[in-house]
Each structure stands twice: as structure tokens, then as C-alpha cells.
From TrEMBL:
Gene3D superfamilies in the cross-refs: Ribonuclease E inhibitor RraA/RraA-like
Annotated keywords: Magnesium, Metal-binding
Stored InterPro entries: RraA/RraA-like, RraA/RraA-like_sf
Species whose genome carries this gene: Chelatococcus caeni
Gene Ontology molecular function terms on file: metal ion binding
Coiled coil feature spans: none
Binding site for Mg(2+): D118
Cofactor requirements of the protein: Mg(2+); a divalent metal cation
Binding site for substrate: G95, G96, F97, V98, R117
Pfam families given in the database record: RraA-like (PF03737)
Full protein name: Putative 4-hydroxy-4-methyl-2-oxoglutarate aldolase
């Protein structure tokens, strides 16, 4: 089903959304800068499809607690797959074949605190990822999926782990990635759009010769931002 909020979110910058979330009283929203884009210039927006995994017993392959086709099941159009690896980076959670399958199912991106492999192949696919690490090591003997469609936690930039629930909105660009709770997404996106308009006006006035302090005083950036509800 088409989500018009995603169309609007794609036109925003993570910095604008982050500022509005801060002003709205939701400071714990930005993923840690240790989670890095796989390719420069990538940006994506989608609804979170959440997965969680756990370490295997050392040296022993274990069957996944989730069905073998879990990635294909969650890869619906407009989704961002968000995987909580629990800090595990000793092997890749997925590689090029899974990335291709996700992309083919309509998934628009991946966010994880874990590692992936086949980085060049995934870049060539044009499948954007924000990841904790890249490694050639296969994670199959070391890690397994354990839970699907549950809230997950990923490392945050400033206020502890960021909780992401299924259906939350994810925006990623060159500055990083932010999560917007679904219950306040329409309000946050609308207020970020107004901030975008204000900042465009500020840029125009400064390029016309206005001083930064005078232009900022004439164009308050956050007076319109409403406290988050819900």
C-alpha cells in the first residue's frame, strides 16, 4: 500500500528531522555514527521491518529460530530491514544474495549494528545499507536470526540505544540515520517540512548579503515545532 508520508520524508534531510525530534521532546532518535553508510551519497526512507538475532554456541552451526525465508517474508515494498545483532560483528549477517532478494521484494534499505559481506556486489546492486562493519567472514556458524516483528534496539548517537518498533519511519542520508516513531510521524514530518522552508529562506537571505545573526533572528527556526503526542 502506498504511504504518502514516505514521499514527503524522502524530501527531507536527517538533520532537519533530528532537530524537530529534539525540539518535540524525543531526543533519542539518531543512530550512532559508528553505523556507517555502505556507499557515499546513499539516502533512503522506509518503514521498519524489525529482526533480532543472537550468537551461536561457539563453533557450532545452529538452525535459525526464524524460518529460512524470513528475509523474503519481511521484504515488502517500502520497508527498511532493521536488524539488531546484539553487538555481534564476528561474521556477516547477510551478503549479496540476501541483499538481492530483499531488493527484489521491494525493500529500500538495510540498517544493522552487525556486519555484512559482499560489499562491492551490494553497492553495484544499488541497495543502500547502514552497517556496523564489513567482513569476509560468514556468520552462519556464529549468529542466527531469533525473533521477527519485534521492537529492536540499536546503538544511539547521544542518549543510549535507539528503540525501533515495526512500522516506525527510518530516514538515512549522508549524515546518518534517524528513527521516527510511527505514532508521531505525521506531526514530525510536517514540522520538519516547515523547518525546511524556513531554512531555505534563511539561505536565500544570507546569500543576498544578510548577516547570519540578523537572518536567524528574523526567521525563528523552531517556534512552530509542537511537543510530541502519543
Amino acid at each position: 500500500m502506498h504511504d504518502p508520508l514516505l514521499d514527503r520524508l524522502r524530501n527531507l534531510e536527517t538533520g532537519q528531522v533530528s532537530d524537530v525530534l529534539d525540539e518535540a521532546g524525543l531526543p533519542n532518535h539518531a543512530l550512532a555514527s559508528a553505523l556507517v553508510p555502505l556507499a557515499p551519497g546513499q539516502r533512503f526512507a522506509g518503514r521498519a521491518a524489525c529482526l533480532r538475532g543472537e550468537r551461536n554456541v561457539a563453533g557450532r552451526a545452529q538452525a535459525s529460530a526464524a524460518p529460512a525465508d524470513t528475509f523474503e517474508r519481511v521484504a515488502k515494498p517500502g520497508t527498511v530491514v532493521v536488524i539488531e545483532a546484539g553487538g555481534f560483528q564476528g561474521g556477516a549477517l547477510l551478503g549479496g544474495f540476501v541483499a538481492l532478494s530483499l531488493q527484489r521484494g521491494g525493500c529500500v534499505g538495510l540498517v544493522t549494528d552487525g556486519a555484512i559481506r559482499d560489499a562491492n556486489e551490494i553497492r553495484d546492486l544499488g541497495f543502500p545499507c547502514v552497517v556496523g562493519a564489513v567482513t569476509p567472514v560468514n556468520g552462519a556458524r556464529r549468529w542466527r536470526l531469533s525473533e521477527v516483528d519485534v521492537p529492536v534496539c540499536l546503538p544511539g548517537q547521544s542518549d543510549g540505544p535507539v528503540r525501533v518498533s515495526p512500522g516506525d519511519y527510518i530516514l538515512a542520508d549522508g549524515d546518518g540515520a534517524v528513527a521516527i516513531p510511527a505514532g508521531v510521524a505525521e506531526q514530525i514530518i510536517a514540522d520538519a517540512e516547515e523547518l525546511q522552508r524556513i531554512e531555505r529562506r534563511i539561505g536565500e537571505e544570507m546569500r543576498a548579503g544578510g548577516s547570519r545573526t540578523a537572518v536567524f533572528k528574523a526567521n525563528p527556526r523552531f517556534d512552530h515545532v509542537r511537543p510530541a503526542r502519543g
